[in-house]
Amino acid sequence: MKKKNITKKTPTRVHAFRCTDEVWSQLKVLAKECGISLNRYLTETGLKHHPRQRLTKEEVDALNSLVYARTDLIKIASVLSKKTDEEKLKLFRTEKFMTWWIRSSAELIQHWYSIEKNITSPVQTKE
HSE of 14 in the Cβ direction (CA atoms, 13 Å)? Predict the structure, then answer.
C-alpha cells in the first residue's frame, strides 16, 4: 500500500488586540470595501500596504469597454503596419491625416497601459 503524502501548512500565530466596537466596525467596513477579509486587511495594513477599494460594477464595465477599444486600436495598427505606403494613402487620402491618426492611436494605447498600471493592485479583486 502507498503512503499518503501529507503536506503540512506553514504554522500561523494568533494575535489579539483591543479596540472599541466602533473601531472594529470601521475596520470591517474598510476590509469589505477592499473586497478582502478582515484578517487580510489587518495584515496588509500592518505591513504598511494600504489595499485599494474594489471597483464598482460600473467601473468594471467601463474598464472592460476600454479593454475592447484598446484591442481594436492594436488590431488596426497591426493591419496598417503591414500595408504599403500607397495602400495607406488610399485608406487615409492624405499623408498628414494618416500620420496624425497612427500617432494618436499609439498615444491612446500607451495611455491605456498607464491607466491599467494605476488601477492594478495585488490585493484588489476584479469582481
Answer: 0
Q: What is the average per-residue pLDDT within 26-39?
A: 88
pTM, rounded to two decimals: 0.43
Residues 74-123 have pLDDT tens digits of 887 788 788 887 887 777 777 787 778 778 878 887 877 777 776 654 44
What phi and psi values does residue 116 have, to the nearest 5 degrees? -60, -40
As given in the structure block, the three cell numbers for residue 16 are: 489579539
The C-alpha cell at 8 is 503540512
Could you write out the three-class secondary structure of the chain?
CCCCCCCCCCCCCCCCCCCCHHHHHHHHHHHHHHCCCHHHHHHHHHCCCCCCCCCCHHHHHHHHHHHHHHHHHHHHHHHHHHCCHHHHHHHHCCHHHHHHHHHHHHHHHHHHHHHHHHHCCCCCCCC
Backbone angles phi, psi at 27, to 5 degrees: -65, -40
d(CA 78, CA 76): 5
